[in-house]
Write a structure and sequence with these properties.
alpha/beta, Rossmann fold, 2 domains, 20 helices
Length: 486
């Protein structure tokens, strides 16, 4: 198979900088691609976290004020997983306290259009005849709205290579006022319906979708959902018109980082053939979170953002009813202040039965996946999701809504699927509080039939969620765009 050279442009990459699933994909997919003979280099902004964590490095290019953008430099390094890294260092835009997209108070940086316009511009420079590097990509792989203008800049660049874009969440579009078109030095002709314009605004993501040679999403079901009105967020018409150029590829996970047999955050390791450690992790989690150490009461786990999208309002509503089944509940997450307050109030009202930690704790997230008996993930929509993969790998059957990547990765447990060896969780029949309660109750009933429960857990733990299959699918898209296969 011929080698392909790909510039992978992203606004975050684990473990250097992470706010969500995009970082996990950007950290793992390039490594999986390199393992199958695709020469990938990752381009990411030089946030303080990136500059501090990257290893030995050297400056490989200097960019003066390009089209009004502040001066910047390009730094070459190698990530811990062996993937070459290109860091776009522009202190004026990226060296700030806070996160990649927002200040310490949670408000978006006002100059985000410029910050990510520069990222897109440099990605386009590296994918054209203007590139100062000896390494030249065959294709630029963009990700989400932050790199969406790359295709626009490439469209007017000499010797430009093709580009594709991956949608990780269509709800985030990078929409700004029309005057940004002039500020970002986009072609004036691009501001129309057949370009970057979206309902009167300039849209980074709309630009990415319109100018990309091919569009991918992070699950097959989500690829179909976003072409409809409910989850199209105003872009369904464009996506439907390009349906032949839209491919859904299910994400994988880092099977080294998420491995119950070697997880550094667990005191007791376990696997499909030796499950005793699973019970020990449950006891350890109960002790850590102040829950009663009851081995025969199913423990429900949650690791999530507290948002309407994630459906946790339904879980909080039925929590008192669930305790009568009985169950225990442990929650880790942050987000909506009202949901956070409700979660804390429930923990105070039902000590020993409900525990809630507001914030993020990487170690605790692993311990919940390992120690819980079931994982609750009733998202109203979910482009792909990752925790349902982690849960299955850790023998913690997930309870999910039938949407996006959840529908593609969790098989509802029925007598038929359990017998066939395909069952791997529990799927809601609808998206109401009663539907969630009924599904959890169904899971609890099976839990008390330990013979069947062990079969279900083994099904979960023996599924393959590695990145290899996904990487091969991305390589096929690259080959198709480059005209190297039919």
């Amino acid at each position: 198979m011929p080698e392909i050279k790909v510039l992978f442009a992203t606004s975050e990459v684990a473990p250097l900088i992470k706010t969500g699933g995009l970082a996990d994909v950007s950290g793992a997919l390039p490594a999986a691609l390199r393992a199958i003979n695709v020469d990938v280099r990752v381009l990411v902004p030089g946030y303080p976290q990136v500059m501090e964590k990257m290893g030995p490095h050297e400056v490989v290019a200097n960019f003066p004020e390009i089209l009004g953008f502040p001066p910047s430099t390009l730094i070459f390094s190698i990530m811990g997983n062996g993937v070459p890294l290109l860091v776009l260092d522009c202190p004026m835009l990226y060296q700030r306290t806070g996160g990649p997209y927002a200040d310490p108070t949670g408000h978006d940086w006002l100059d985000n259009p410029v910050r990510f316009g520069l990222l897109s511009k440099i990605a386009a420079v590296l994918g054209s005849r203007e590139s100062p590097l000896r390494w030249h990509p065959d294709l630029v792989h963009c990700n989400d709205w932050q790199t969406g203008l790359t295709g626009v800049y490439l469209s007017v660049a000499e010797g430009a290579v093709p580009n594709i874009i991956t949608i990780h969440n269509l709800a985030f579009q990078g929409n700004f006022s029309p005057r940004k078109v002039q500020m970002l030095h986009l072609p004036p002709t691009s501001f129309n319906v057949n370009g970057v314009e979206l309902y009167g605004n300039m849209s980074f993501l709309k630009a990415g979708l319109y100018y990309a040679y091919h569009i991918t999403t992070v699950s097959p079901t989500y690829a179909q959902e976003i072409q409809g009105e409910t989850l199209g967020f105003g872009l369904q018409g464009l996506l439907h018109s390009r349906s032949e150029d839209v491919t859904g590829i299910l994400n994988g996970i880092d099977t080294d980082e998420w491995n119950p047999e070697s997880d550094k955050y667990l005191d007791s390791h376990f696997g499909p053939a030796r499950m005793a450690g699973k019970d020990k992790n449950k006891l350890a989690l109960q002790n850590r979170m102040g829950l009663k150490p009851e081995a025969d009461v199913p423990l429900l786990g949650v690791v999530s953002r507290f948002t309407h999208q994630k459906g946790l309002d339904l879980l909080l509503e039925i929590a008192p009813r669930l305790l009568k089944l009985p169950v225990q509940l442990v929650m880790l997450g942050s987000g909506d202040p009202v949901m956070q307050k409700t979660a804390r109030a429930l923990a105070q009202k039902f000590p020993g039965k409900i525990a809630a930690t507001v914030g993020f704790d990487e170690g605790l997230s692993h311990q919940i996946e390992a120690g819980a008996d079931m994982f609750i993930m009733p998202s109203r929509f979910e482009p792909c999701g990752l925790n349902q993969f982690y849960s299955q790998r850790y023998g913690t059957p997930p309870i999910v809504n039938n949407t996006g990547g959840l529908a593609d990765s969790v098989v509802d447990c029925t007598p038929q699927t359990l017998k066939a060896g395909t069952a791997s969780g529990f799927v809601l029949k609808g998206m109401t509080a009663d539907d969630l309660f009924d599904t959890i109750q169904r899971a609890v009933e099976l839990y008390h039939d330990q013979k069947k429960w062990k079969v279900l857990r083994k099904n979960c733990m023996t599924k393959d969620f590695s990145w290899e299959t996904s990487a091969r699918a991305y390589r096929e898209v690259y080959m198709k765009v480059l005209g190297r296969i039919e």
